[in-house]
Design brief:
0% strand; binds fe (ii) ion; mainly alpha; Ribonucleotide Reductase, subunit A
């Protein structure tokens, strides 16, 4: 076994051990007794999409609280849809014998899938608790693992895209609940999820570090699609049209949804939040060779040049 593969095996063993030692309880790990009232913030007000834009003053406090429920709920719903799909896909890979020569990796994938099933149940329960109805599921998401199905020795594309999505979504919801006055239950849902998700993220990072260079065509295409993919994912996550529509803002300015979305995306406060939040992800891209100077124009077009410059500087220290 190569040195890199043995690093992945060691980490998988360690994570399986941690996973079997403590598992999130669907019943006991969250304060489900918390009142359900409309008065709760689920997202810290300064983390709302409208914060720092002129729209903030045009919305009533009730509308903003409703927006906070919908915006955090939209990440939860994303997890519900995505973690079901990843579980189904990883179980299929296991059944097909992928990683059969690395049984420790397969064992960890079982833990991974069990955790995702639990997460879906907890997120569903939390959405019901806060009375946030389910969102539309875009076709691109339903077919995610069909479109990215692989025939190579290792399923690197799906592991990598799963990593990018889980990691950024987790960072976002952690940022959402970080602030005063946020519901204790919402905070606990996010915190307990992060505790287990951190293992999924570490495992996928190691998989990419260990195996990416063995599959040059994976690296070559990831270098090109990553900046575009991350830009679209982040922007769609921070300016969710369905959330705006469901609040039913009274002020007529909210009717021009296109301008509203663009204002939210271009908001300097949001850009600063994005930059801070994405900094560990950008460092990983540079360190794992996903970022390559040969494609710096693509990162520039996606507005990530400064993020990459900061990441390189941090790694050089
Ligand atoms: Fe999860
Ligand atoms: Fe996960």
């Amino acid at each position: 076994m190569s040195e890199v593969a043995s690093r992945l095996v060691r980490l998988s063993k360690k994570l399986s051990h941690a996973s079997s030692k403590r598992q999130m309880s669907i019943v006991g790990d969250h304060p489900w007794h918390e009142p359900r009232g409309e008065a709760l913030w689920l997202r810290a007000p300064e983390k709302l999409s409208l914060y720092g834009t002129p729209y903030l003053q045009l919305a009533s406090e009730g509308e903003l609280r409703r927006l906070s429920r919908l915006e955090l709920g939209s990440w939860w719903h994303g997890f519900i849809v995505f973690e079901r799909l990843v579980t189904e896909y990883y179980m299929r890979l296991i059944n097909q014998g992928v990683f059969a020569e690395l049984p420790e990796v397969v064992e960890y994938m079982h833990h991974f899938c069990r955790e995702e099933l639990n997460h879906c149940l907890v997120f569903e329960k939390a959405m019901r608790h806060f009375d946030v109805p389910m969102f539309e599921v875009p076709d691109a998401m339903t077919d995610f693992y069909v479109d990215n199905a692989e025939s190579g020795k290792y399923p690197l594309v799906s592991v990598y895209l799963t990593l990018v999505i889980e990691w950024i979504a987790d960072l976002y919801q952690r940022m959402d609940v970080d602030g005063r006055g946020v519901s204790e239950l919402a905070t606990a849902v996010v915190k307990e999820h992060t505790r287990e998700e951190a293992r999924h993220i570490a495992w996928a990072q190691e998989m990419i570090r260990s195996l990416a260079h063995e599959v040059p065509e994976f690296l070559e295409s990831a270098r090109q699609y990553t900046p575009v993919f991350v830009r679209q994912f982040v922007d769609a996550g921070v300016a969710n049209v369905e959330c705006f529509q469901r609040v039913e803002f009274k002020h007529p300015a909210f009717q021009d949804v296109e301008t509203l979305v663009q204002t939210v995306i271009d908001n300097p406060h949001r850009r600063e939040l994005n930059r801070g939040l994405l900094s560990p992800v950008m460092r990983f891209f540079v360190e794992a060779g996903i970022y390559d100077d040969a494609y710096s124009d693509l990162w520039q077009a996606a507005n990530f040049s400064e993020d990459i410059r900061i990441a390189k500087q941090a790694l050089a220290r």
